[in-house]
Amino acid sequence: MSEEHSDIRVAELFYSLQGEGLYVGVPSIFLRMFGCNFTCSGFSMPRGSLSRERFGVDAGKYKEYKDLPLVHTGCDSYASWDPRFRHLSKWMMYDEIVDRMKELLPEGKFSRDKHLILTGGEPMLWQDKIPGLIAELDSRMMNANYVTFETNGTQMLEDKLKDYLHSRREVIFSISSKLPSSGELWEKAIKPEVIRSYIDYMPNVKAYFKWVVSSPEDLNDIKKAIRTYEDGGVCIPVYLMPAGGTTMHYDENEKWVAELALANGWRYSPRIQVELWKNSWGR
Question: Which domain holds residue 150?
Answer without folding.
Answer: 8-277
